């Protein structure tokens, strides 16, 4: 990197000199334009066909390709192949007449990445909406039958209530604890601040399934009279109480709350990281001004700090809303929806995986899609506002 | 304030609450870690804290780790699968995304704003929308690669793409425009500018995204379960989920299995924490 920046001014002095980069690449660029066009088209075709065949061979003859070889070849072919494809796409476009090439080049650069988004996210969205009006194996249209099925199912409404509870509790809790940790850690000396923040942040690296394992051990329950190995029940019985089967506690949907605790535990570190840097960005003189006016620490925090970090709090909140709407892993492995703990994403998974009901599953996703639409509009709006300020 | 050498009296409440929170946040993981080194009989008869209170009076063993790596869990194989899934699924999207991000940042063309807004919007769309059509497309009626690593590489590449383009583009737009201008004056093509200037200058953002994507792919359950299954190609997370479902016998292997599945993310976390944090911060859907 240093080399590049050091070279730049030197090259600037001799713009048309022999050092000009387009000269010393040589090779294919010396050929006539028509030859370059033909070569690049053939090369792109050969590369795509070659890489495609290779991957097909992995798929159909796995016995000849041990796992590690597949992995290594995928990295090498994927990266070198993609680089070569881009090289020939570029060569092709550059060999077109100048007026055309300048217009096409941006789209050539965009094509692989944006094309993949189209193939794997945009097309499926349309197709899912389409399938939601079709039968279990998407072979015939059934009108609104799938929607009638899900809306007529009390489990669906129970899952909706649970999702709503997740939505009301988890993002707010993450913002609250994230702010609390960020503010308090800011008051500790540097090294203590770093250590405490790292430890709170650590769960961010743990998978939902790993977290479920960890918390499963905490909520563990053995019948009364047996040794309690879960710390929660050990405390309860230590005080002379009866052991509680935590994840079966349906009153006030307590078991749902216990599942939410897992996600909060995982995500507070994320909130803390964003909020901490926002708090550090609050100018010291605004705090001083408050102190001179006789505000106490709490007033300074609520009236001076919070208004200045509100934007970041919203960011954390929105990110968590998006995460919570599709929460799946924790519920799936902890309870799989037992005792009124189901959520929309788990309902979807059951329909597609266990019941093979593509139509019903698609209808559930459409509900999910409608639920994220307000967030989506909000995101696009904020993005456009930010771009306008650039 | 952060340089204060000693504890100031007015910060004592902060110390107490922080220590409380850190203990609360760490105990779950530490408890399971200790349990993973305890013999079966101890695991079922006493809680992990008895081993902390009386470390020399209780048994310690590596048997659970041996059992989970070689025995019924076969986590060693799953561990290998996770690497084979994770590394290509991290590296391949980066190149596609970098080219697209370059075009969005440094080129002017009709449709630029609209395309980028679509990418911002797509980041919010739950990946569940893709599953029914993708099971169909990758399934036996069409490409028939379901259950192969290839299917999962493609899926993770596609699902990681919006975030990759978004973060790289945001980073590239902070690079000094003069560098690009001078390259243009030198007669460098976009292709050359990309490789020689922009990619080397974007290494911090690329590294941050790579770490985020790798941990995401490693920790994923949904895609691995639906498109790779729980057979010979199962990832560590799928293997751990299978262990969780197994009641009764083999239950003592679960804590060790959890830590085998966490080993790589933990290693990444402790060695590359700064990049990981940077990736998360940049990837937080900006509000």
Please give the CATH architecture of the largest domain in chain A. Answer: Orthogonal Bundle
Averaged pLDDT of chain A: 88
Structural class of chain B: mainly alpha
- Portion in strands of chain A: under 5%
What is the CATH topology of the largest domain in chain B?
Answer: MetI-like fold
The radius of gyration of chain A is 29 Å
Specify the CATH homologous superfamily of the largest domain in chain A. Answer: MetI-like
The largest chain-to-chain contact, stated as pair and per-chain residue counts, equals:
A-B, 137 and 136 residues
Q: Mind telling me which CATH architecture of the largest domain in chain B this is?
A: Orthogonal Bundle
CATH superfamily of the largest domain in chain B: MetI-like
Structural descriptors:
heterodimer; A: MetI-like fold; disordered N terminus; B: 287 residues; mainly alpha; MetI-like fold; 15 helices
Please describe the topology of this protein.
The complex is a heterodimer of chains A (390) and B (287).
Chain A: H1 2-13, H2 21-24, H3 33-60, H4 67-95, H5 98-131, H6 145-151, H7 154-186, H8 190-201, H9 208-218, H10 231-238, H11 254-280, H12 284-292, H13 297-325, H14 329-334, H15 344-354, H16 358-389
Chain B: H1 12-36, H2 40-45, H3 48-53, H4 63-70, H5 75-106, H6 112-122, H7 131-138, H8 149-172, H9 177-185, H10 190-201, H11 203-219, H12 222-227, H13 236-245, H14 254-271, H15 273-283
Helix pairs in contact in B: 1-14, 4-14, 5-8, 5-11, 5-13, 6-8, 8-11, 9-10, 11-15, 13-14
Description of the molecule:
The complex is a heterodimer of chains A (390) and B (287). With 390 residues, chain A is mainly α. Chain A has two domains: 18-131, no CATH class; 148-389, MetI-like (MetI-like fold). Chain A is built from 16 helices and no strands. Chain A has helices spanning 2-13, 21-24, 33-60, 67-95, 98-131, 145-151, 154-186, 190-201, 208-218, 231-238, 254-280, 284-292, 297-325, 329-334, 344-354, 358-389. The longest helix of chain A has 34 residues, at 98-131. Chain A is globular, with a radius of gyration of 29 Å. The two termini of chain A are 26 Å apart. The model of chain A is unreliable at 1-25 (pLDDT under 50). With 287 residues, chain B is mainly α. Chain B has two domains: 9-61, no CATH class; 69-283, MetI-like (MetI-like fold), CATH 1.10.3720.10. Chain B has helices at 12-36, 40-45, 48-53, 63-70, 75-106, 112-122, 131-138, 149-172, 177-185, 190-201, 203-219, 222-227, 236-245, 254-271, 273-283. Chain B is globular. The model of chain B has no long low-confidence stretch (mean pLDDT 88). The chains are: A mainly alpha (390), B mainly alpha (287). The interface between A and B is large, with 137 and 136 residues.
